[in-house]
Design brief:
Shape: globular
Largest sheet: 4 strands, mixed
Distance between the termini: 104 Å
CATH topology of one domain: Glutaredoxin
Helix content: 40-55%
CATH architecture of one domain: 3-Layer(aba) Sandwich
Number of helices: 7
Radius of gyration: 25 Å
CATH superfamily of one domain: Glutaredoxin
Structural class: alpha+beta
Strand order of the largest sheet: 2-1-3-4
Order of helices and strands: HHHEHHEHEEH
Length: 163
């Protein structure tokens, strides 16, 4: 018995189409996806730049400012991964973290010479820029830079009030 290849091909196509129409081999049911999905939230940001700087001054904390724009792949990736990392969230408790939407705060971005997104600027407790990180950062890369700022803050001699 001789079977032509076109008959085999037609049979495979027919089985594939019927399977797709019957729901076989389709997407995983929503309830299963929902059960396996875990939603991780990023660290808490302040969204008012001026209020964030005032909070940092009052609390004598270093500042992390994250500049991003909507629909920027690097910015979104950092929000979904880097800023959801446990170590980053732990380190962030020792900073005042501010998130600036560059599309809404163009004057601020211009005054700080922000020309690409994402950009992170780390300031010491005196408000001086210590590090500028341009482009997406992994949790490991950002953690190293946050540690540098915290160590510099710890080594800084305490100011004597009233002199």
């Amino acid at each position: 018995m001789v079977v032509e290849y076109r008959h085999i091909l037609l049979f495979i196509i027919a089985v594939t189409v019927c399977s797709g129409l019957s729901g076989c081999g389709g997407d995983v049911p929503a309830q299963i996806v929902w059960q396996t999905e875990t939603k991780v939230t990023p660290l808490s940001f302040m969204f008012d730049h001026a209020a964030g700087l005032e909070t940092a001054r009052q609390e004598r904390k270093p500042t992390l400012i994250f500049f991003s724009v909507p629909k920027n792949v690097g910015s979104q990736r950092m929000l979904e991964t880097t800023f959801c990392d446990d170590e980053i969230k732990s380190l962030a408790e020792r900073f005042v973290c501010i998130h600036v939407d560059g599309s809404q705060e163009s004057e601020l971005c211009e005054s700080l010479a922000i020309t690409s997104f994402p950009t992170i600027i780390l300031f010491n407790i005196g408000g001086a820029e210590v590090r500028r990180l341009i482009g997406g950062q992994t949790p490991e890369q950002l953690a190293v830079q946050m540690h540098v700022v915290l160590q510099a803050t710890a080594l800084r001699p305490q100011m004597v009030v009233g002199r």
